[in-house]
# Entry
Amino acid sequence: MDGLLRGKVTIITGAGSGVGRAAALLFAQHGARVALADINAQAAAKTAADVRTQGGEAMAMACNVASAAEVEALVAHTVKAFGRLDVMYNNAGITIQPEPGKGLKRLVESTQADMDRLFGVNVYGVMNGCQAAIRQFDAQGGGGVMVNTASVAGLVGYGGVVYGATKGAVVALTRTLALEVAGQNIRVNSVCPAGMPTNFMPGSSSERAMASMAQAHPLGRPVDPAECASAALFLACDLSSNITGVNLPVDGGLAAGVPVKRPG
Ligand SMILES: NC(=O)c1ccc[n+]([C@@H]2O[C@H](COP(=O)([O-])OP(=O)(O)OC[C@H]3O[C@@H](n4cnc5c(N)ncnc54)[C@H](O)[C@@H]3O)[C@@H](O)[C@H]2O)c1
# Structure
């Protein structure tokens, strides 16, 4: 198979749904050999089966990214199956689910358990993925690419406070890590999507939720997970070969500022 990631061994976390699933299908269309990880093993297996149906090469693995040991095992298993690792896409992420009939939890309503869970997956999960990937890249003699899914909530105030704090951490670690590993010829970037209709939040595909996302984005529509996957593809492949430490908004202009309201 030809394409922008021809032959590149790529791990994608959170590959059972939403952005991760879209990235798995897209990266494989571009020739990547994909190792698909998700805490939901069945969902990862379904994505892997769909990649194979479209002619790609895929394996699936159950992995909780909050566990460093499970992420190490994911990388080891991938290398055993595919011989090496070229791209690590740390995409898995969660938010605090609102209680039925209520909006997003405010900080004062958020529990220690909420905070631990979100930081465990969204921040430790990304750091676990980066650590394991760097060790493997070094063992291969250097080089390698990491892409993280942060959020527009890491760039501007948007959504819940605890969630925004975790994504702000991903934005900061992407920049700092990019500097730290540049000498090893490893690139680190993130995509920062705004609202997408996925399984991330219940009801996000409802007409009301879609209209609210459309209103928040200057381009006037929600972000399609495939659009976020396209940005991740750009950062994963050689088209971005001299780009590192960048947090790329995929947000219909949301992070650009407040649009001027013109009369009429
Ligand atoms: N949907 C949005 O509006 C939105 C906006 C900005 C950023 N994001 C980010 O995009 C990324 C992907 O989210 P999505 O919208 O595709 O959501 P999604 O819920 O559709 O998919 C996330 C996937 O991650 C998996 N996952 C959850 N916890 C995991 C864990 N501990 N270990 C491994 N896998 C785990 C889930 O099982 C699911 O398959 C996340 O990092 C999220 O924070 C989403």
Notes: The longest strand covers residues 186-193.
